Amino acid sequence: MNQFNAIFQSIIDGDEEQTVQLCQDMLAKGCRPIDILEKGMIPAMDRLGVLLNREERFIPQVLISARAMQSAVAIIRPLLLNKAESGTARETVIVGTVQGDIHTIGKNLVGIMLQSAGFDVADLGSNVSPEEFIRQIRAHNARIVAMSAMLTTSMNSMKNTVQRLKREDFGYPLHVIVGGGPISPSFAREIGADFSATMMDTMRRAVEISTTKH
Ligand code: B12
């Protein structure tokens, strides 16, 4: 059994107390926070998706598991942020899950990674309307938006949102990075956005954009 199995299982079981304890133990043993996330916690959520499809787990159980994961993420978050004190970029990235979609975990992680790269993040939460994206982009003079969709049904909402943003004149070019379970590079291309597969990719892409003159 590898060291990530215990936290993987504890998230599947929705045991919040044990998940937090295991996370603390692993960190105390010198385990890298990003490894705990990528090798233990995220695979657990993926596994829950499979169990949901097989009807071996149901939405209320998944909610409890999501809560356990979020409590452990809260412990890891400051460790990821500390590393970034000297980050060069200081612009604000707008982060949100599109209208009609209430999934937050992946989007939250994307926000944390962006903060770890020294960005300010305006997290609009989930179920965000195109109008709210526009309002917040203007309020922050933001050049970068990271948009999440986890449902095939909310892909349409993402497409509409990106189209709405493209019709606005912000006075500078806007970069939209899209991601989430059902989003593919070809879909991103089709709607005129950048694709990122992971939170690490998003961070790299945002740094690339912010260091490119416009
Ligand atoms: C947890 C969960 C929930 C929780 C969400 C809690 C929360 N606060 O987020 C709850 C229980 C509320 C929920 C509800 C529903 N869910 Co749900 N859920 C999941 C589950 C099990 C895990 C998602 C997750 O958090 N993964 C962990 C994170 C870390 O991964 P992630 O989100 O994929 O994010 C990573 C990448 O995608 C990427 N990423 C994510 N966002 C972004 C954004 C950008 C910009 C970038 C670059 C990258 C990026 O980076 C992240 C880190 O690497 C998935 C199964 C799965 N395999 O995804 C189903 C899943 C997404 N849900 C599903 C469904 C159907 C629903 C419901 C409609 C169920 C229902 N009948 O009510 C509702 C949705 C209601 C709504 N209107 O939104 C389906 C979607 C099927 C589809 N293709 O449309 C899935 C796939 C489950 C399944 N059946 O297989 N769900």
From TrEMBL:
MF terms in GO: cobalamin binding; metal ion binding; methionine synthase activity
InterPro entries: Cbl-bd_cap (IPR003759), Cobalamin-bd (IPR006158), Cobalamin-bd_sf (IPR036724), Met_Synthase/Corrinoid (IPR050554), Meth_synthase_dom (IPR036594)
CDD domains with a match to the protein in the record: corrinoid_protein_B12-BD
GO BP, sorted A to Z: homocysteine metabolic process; tetrahydrofolate metabolic process
Domain B12-binding N-terminal: 1-88
Pfam families hit by this protein: B12-binding (PF02310), B12-binding_2 (PF02607)
Domain B12-binding positions: 90-214
PROSITE patterns cross-referenced by the UniProt entry: B12_BINDING, B12_BINDING_NTER
Domain of life of the source: Bacteria
Entries under SUPFAM superfamilies matching the protein: Cobalamin (vitamin B12)-binding domain, Methionine synthase domain
Claim: Cytoplasm is one of the keywords in the record: no
One GO cellular component, as annotated: cytosol
Keywords from the named record: Cobalt, Metal-binding
Identification of the protein by name: Corrinoid protein
Origin species: Lawsonibacter faecis
UniProt lineage: Bacteria, Bacillati, Bacillota, Clostridia, Eubacteriales
